[in-house]
Amino acid sequence: MPYSELTEIADTGRPNEWLTHDERTTLTRKTTSEAVIILAAHYAFYFLSLAGALAPLPLIVNLICAVLNGLAIGLLFVIGHDCVHKAYAPTKILNQLMARLSFIPCAHSSSQWEVVHNRNHHGKTNFKNVDYVWAPINKNEYDAASPMRRFMERIYRSAWGPVIYYYIEFWLRRLLIPVTKEMRIEWRRHLPDSIFILTALALTIAGILAAGKAMNPDRSLVMIFLVGWLLPFSIWNYLVALSTYLHHTHPKVHWFDKPEEWSFYGSAILGTTHVDLPFKWARLFSDVMEHTAHHALPSIPIYKLSDAQKLLLKRYGDKVVKYKFTIAEYKRILAACKLYDTERHCWTDFDGNPTGPFLEKLNKILPSKAAS
Q1: b/e string for 283-317 if b means 16 or more Cβ within 10 A?
Q2: What pTM was estimated for this model as a whole?
Q3: Is-contact 62 227, C-beta < 8 A?
Q4: What's the rounded Cα separation, in Å, for the pair 142 and 338?
Q5: Coil, strand or helix: which one is 341?
Q6: 361, pLDDT greater than 70
Q7: How far apart are CA 318 and CA 3, in angstroms?
């Protein structure tokens, strides 16, 4: 029996399976006032933390504010992410406008993000060569790779991975300038957004330098640049890389490379995670880590995602990969998830030795509607 049939006998993951019509209507309803208030509040957090990073205060205070500013950039990105899904504001024009505003601090082209995220990542989640967000390679691919590529794969799959992954694999080539093949194909469509975000990036850095010099004339422009832009931007890059890694990497998370084995249920429900963070003070960040409901129904706005996830967990229960984030758990995931064997459906180490359960075998014993 094909792998897709093994999973879909029991469940499909489609919204009508875990939401009533009224629940879906409520969860996908957006209001302009809520969208504007949330965006304004997070932009206020961004500017206040930026001011703290630039102000004539002890350097340690500046550094703490710079870290908070990096978090603020990430939270604004989450809003922009929802806007590109048309899941944040009630109208297309508002979503487009807010997407571009939200993406200024993280320097993302809205149209390029739509290709990378909506079309590829959501269109075929966890299907290699289409969805390339933290897509694992297998032992044969690893052995055939160049020494440099193998070295980079080892760095990516270590604790150092999120420090550099997003810069190299996504931001510069796919989300700032349309360099990669899939972006060059539609370069005319991407050009206006690329010009807009490159201009916004230049103005952002110039504005930070000017504001920093005005607030603290004794500080050098180099130090202002490091504390006011580079450190916050690096924090944001780390957060987005780590978050997306945790969303689709776990010993129980499935990846595919055969069309007949991929299914919506296998990718949206079995291929995403629910991560409980040890803190709840950054509401949007906590909510985005409850990732399964977002993949099962991307039109749910981030400010209703937690409610949706509770309903999804009621329907699918232990089938969803759910855990609390701790350093020990993160180290366990890093140790187990180096390569992925799409024939045996298990994660392996770099020598090809299984490090987790054989996921196909687990699916063979999932209760089916026929059995029940």
Answers
A1: ebbbbbbbbbbbbbbbebbbbbbbbbbeebbeebe
A2: 0.91
A3: yes
A4: 10
A5: strand
A6: no
A7: 20
